[in-house]
């Protein structure tokens, strides 16, 4: 139901008044509305009682000592703490989990992206097309390679890279597209792969937020040349810190492996016996106890993902008809979304002009943790600092490093609206609750709506 079709009656029904809603058409209407307000109560932000009073949300990350500790204890007792068989076991399982032929782990998601770009040959002087609606780690990976991030605006409906704006940004320097499956929702990979093939570009998928998400039953992270993941504490498979690169290209993963281990030989990357390091390398290896944590988390991973999906679908059905609340839209062909974040767009006009900050503060006061999410990455101060570095000055023509012209070429107006005005995030652990927890979220939004003008008057 669209917001235009939204009726007062629907609002009453959604507020849990049940049968009373049926009376809405009768002369009791005005009384019902008054009752309704009473039942919703005074907003917690105006010193009313919080909807979540005395309730907690599921913890994150989860650790069950009875089932999870034995593996990590065995690692600790073995004295083999550096990379060995447990890390290899995790890599095999991760490749299976995401449906890729091979996997190599590295210290974090940022370095997974950095190494993947590097081993595909993305380097100084190259441009990489990337959405601004992402975590800074995505952009850091491009800059770590001396390459130039070129921002493609966000589709506000899907929160993903706007595929209709990619081709206009391709130049003779463009080497790769770096789509981000942000929130856990797939970017439009069919369109992206078509463009990449046409222009002979690499595709590195930032799937840090989206393991298990699918388009046409194929997992994101397996469409492009490489898929990159993060196992940082907040991510859906938490290890504390950690990252992984997957690919179906065996030689590429062998090269990534070699790089993460000082450039020593590995698999198809071979040299004369005892030749030592063969190529430029780094040291980005996992420890065995990280892998033991990851393997313990993997046991619950599918089940948790399914639970989040069930709760997200239910929550969506409860809030999508509310005025001023527009949930994420899925890209074409998505057969399985996942949820690192549950996002919707907030339109303050439907809330009597209550600012997004006011709305979020009101939800927080009701006990619903919510956030405004990202600030635009295409205008942050790091860029001018990078452009003043001796490396960038050596590599790029002066006019490319002019921050004013860079900013105007990389202007992303849709993303600005999303970041600065509309986006609201609910964190993934909320979706590990039950139906009544989802009802509380919807009720908090409705309560805020019912009292929006009053909240605005007192907090602005
Ligand atoms: C978390 C994240 C990263 C970086 O991963 P780290 O493990 O924190 O380095 C990159 N991109 C996205 C979209 C992320 O969410």
From TrEMBL:
Keyword Iron-sulfur among record annotations: no
Gene3D superfamilies: Aspartate Aminotransferase, domain 1, Type I PLP-dependent aspartate aminotransferase-like (Major domain)
MF annotations from Gene Ontology: pyridoxal phosphate binding; transaminase activity
GO term, biological process aspect, one: polysaccharide biosynthetic process
Highest taxon in the source lineage: Bacteria
Keywords: Pyridoxal phosphate
InterPro entries: DegT/StrS_aminotransferase (IPR000653), PyrdxlP-dep_Trfase (IPR015424), PyrdxlP-dep_Trfase_major (IPR015421), PyrdxlP-dep_Trfase_small (IPR015422)
Keyword Flavoprotein appears in the UniProt entry: no
Similarity annotation: Belongs to the DegT/DnrJ/EryC1 family.
Protein name in the entry: dTDP-4-amino-4,6-dideoxygalactose transaminase
Organism classification: Bacteria, Pseudomonadati, Bacteroidota, Chitinophagia, Chitinophagales
